[in-house]
Amino acid sequence: MCMPRQLRDSSLLRNQAFSHGKWIEARSNARFEVEDPGTGKPFISVPDLAVEDVDSIVESSQEAFEAYRSVNPRTRAELLLSWHNLIRANRDDIATILTYETGKPLAEAYGEIDYATGFTWWFAGEAERIRGDLSVPSAPNRRVITIKQPIGVCVALVPWNFPIAMILRKVGAALAAGCTIIAKPSPETPLTTLTLAHLAQKAGFAPGVFNVITTSNENTPSLSEAMCKHPMVQKVSFTGSTAVGSIIATHCAKGLKKVSLELGGNCPFIIFADADLDVALAQLTALKWRHAGQACVSANRIYVQEDVYEDFLARLVEHTSRIRVGHGARHGVTMGPLTTPRGVEKARRQVEDALQRGAHLALGGNVLTSTGDDVSERAGDSEKVAGGGYFFQPTILRDMNSSMAITREESFAPIAAVYRFQTEEEVVRLANDTEMGLASYVFTRDINRSWRMLERLEAGMIGLNTGNSSAAESPFGGIKMSGYGKESGKDVAVAEYLVSKTCTLTLEGNI
Ligand code: SIN
């Protein structure tokens, strides 16, 4: 096992899957390698579990559920808080592991841990807020009572862009509700999930309450299908592409499994001429360049009103030119690589398509190839990065129009695609002209317009003068082809892991 940067506590770096409190291999003993996207080289391997491994792990979760479902909510809250504190206490090492598996710069890795532990904190509180209700119905002598109970064994299918945040958002809600859960992290980023499992065990969660399956890209479709169709699994929560989300929903439909889907974005970011452009720029650059654009809530289509188009673009180019691209663990780097080579290829194809259809490059536009130099260079003026890896220059495309591929598909790359618009009517039509509906962002100082935009934009989350609306206490989720179900937020997130029973009680006497 080789971790290029030393950890304070090497026991946090695990290289086995985790079931029923034990570190396990695949039945086949097969393993697969995990790459550092900053070098493109493997640095550790983990077990490649397959369909034949699923039964015993689900059975472990079912056995654990029989006991965990009755654990008092206060105790569940205390367990979540102990876990939360252990994660916080090991923040430095976890950030290092996260940087090596995702490629994101260390500062962003810390940012993800801080965001993610918002979920453990929040769901510790939610555990004790779960309650049913009592009502007096129209029929005489009756009371109607509803109670909430944990749904059972759950499965979390988690992507590679925010592997800690996505785990804690799903697993935190499930454990607060009294469910047990099996996490299957993405094959690119299994390591931090295993670290979290290790810390959950230390926090006192019983064997089987939180299991982790590691599996390769080859085995992911069949293994996920087996989990979705397993009769003991009651609920599946998936974050990823709309194409895969639809397959997951199909698998779950046969067994009528409860599903929540957090899918693709293609989010519009709209800047009106009356906006505070400094605020809009700061919010856009934080959102767009976060994790090199690899977020489903990222600004995919940036609409700038005609009067301020050139001014705003110039500021965006100036700001972006200061980004330093390189290995995420290196001091001073502000943008890391893409996590997969597929991401680089997609970015290249999208830029080529836009240029062919009339867009112009305001900055960047190229794949960054390794030169072997141990230097990271400024975004605008060099193609040098250290020692290999999946890098793409921070890129700004101007004069975008609706015929271009980026208009219809998420980039998931450091590409800012900037469109012009004239009127509010026009930009509402353009913004909604997508099958996706995850998030939309609007910048204006006009309160009446803000309110109109909130009501007219078709998205599950609307940022008004902000590019960052993700928080443990706010419901997260999309509409249209961006999925259904809410994660985080008061009541709604935990409700995804609960069933409700209605009790009708007839009383004696005329009451
Ligand atoms: C995502 O983009 O996949 C999640 C981002 C967030 O939670 O803010």
Main attributes?
alpha/beta; Aldehyde Dehydrogenase, Chain A, domain 1; Aldehyde Dehydrogenase, Chain A, domain 2; six-stranded mixed β-sheet; 36% helix; globular; binds succinic acid
Reconstruct the topology from this structure:
Blueprint: E1 17-19, E2 22-24, E3 31-36, E4 41-47, H1 54-68, H2 73-89, H3 91-102, H4 106-127, E5 133-135, E6 142-150, E7 153-157, H5 163-177, E8 180-184, H6 191-203, E9 210-212, H7 220-229, E10 233-239, H8 242-254, E11 258-262, E12 267-271, H9 277-289, E13 299-305, H10 309-320, H11 341-356, E14 360-363, E15 367-368, E16 391-392, E17 395-398, H12 405-408, E18 415-421, H13 424-432, E19 436-437, E20 439-443, H14 447-456, E21 461-464, E22 479-480, E23 483-484, H15 492-495, E24 498-506
Parallel strand pairs: 7-8, 7-10, 8-9, 10-11, 12-13, 12-20, 13-18, 17-18, 20-21
Antiparallel strand pairs: 1-2, 3-4, 5-6, 6-24, 11-23, 14-17, 15-16, 19-22
The structure holds succinic acid (SIN).
Succinic acid binds at residues 161-162, 165, 239, 295-297, 470.
